[in-house]
Amino acid sequence: MNNQRYDTISALFEVVSSLERKWSNEWNQINDLGFSKNHILLLDLLAKEGPKRPSVIAERLKITTGGVTVLTTKLLKGGYIQKSQSSKDRRVSQIAITPEGRKVLEESKTQVIALVHSMFGMLTNEEIQTLHHIFEKCLQQSPRKYGRS
């Protein structure tokens, strides 16, 4: 990799890291429900697509199954989701949203809209489409071992 490309990619990494912190701080400021963005994303996934296995949730949210356990613990205790086990195989479980979870998801929508507007409201429709395409491309990239090409 040539020096100019490395410098540009390093600068991009710094900007993305700063944006990530900024957006996280903004979420924490406007969020009065006490849930992380991932809690809301999990509830939204279950509301839109129905019950899911923890492994599927992990894959869709781009987190580990351990991360799913952390997220679901709070939601289970609050009655926002329920976990059921297969009668055929007790090791297999599914997680579903409850009516209380749907209520919290609905309440979160104004906060999510405010955050999204703060994040992307200054962009044109074309810029939003381009950025979406770039982000999707980055997500599709297979993970590499750092330090190796």
TrEMBL record:
Top-level taxon of the source organism: Bacteria
MF terms in GO: DNA binding; DNA-binding transcription factor activity
Stored SMART domains: HTH_MARR
Record's keyword annotation contains DNA damage: no
UniProt-listed InterPro entries: HTH_MarR-typ (IPR000835), WH-like_DNA-bd_sf (IPR036388), WH_DNA-bd_sf (IPR036390)
Swiss-Prot/TrEMBL keywords: DNA-binding, Transcription, Transcription regulation
Domain HTH marR-type: 5-140
A Pfam family the protein falls into: MarR
PANTHER family associated with the record: TRANSCRIPTIONAL REGULATOR, MARR (PTHR42756), TRANSCRIPTIONAL REPRESSOR OF EMRAB OPERON (PTHR42756:SF1)
The name this protein goes by in its record: MarR family transcriptional regulator
Species: Ureibacillus thermophilus
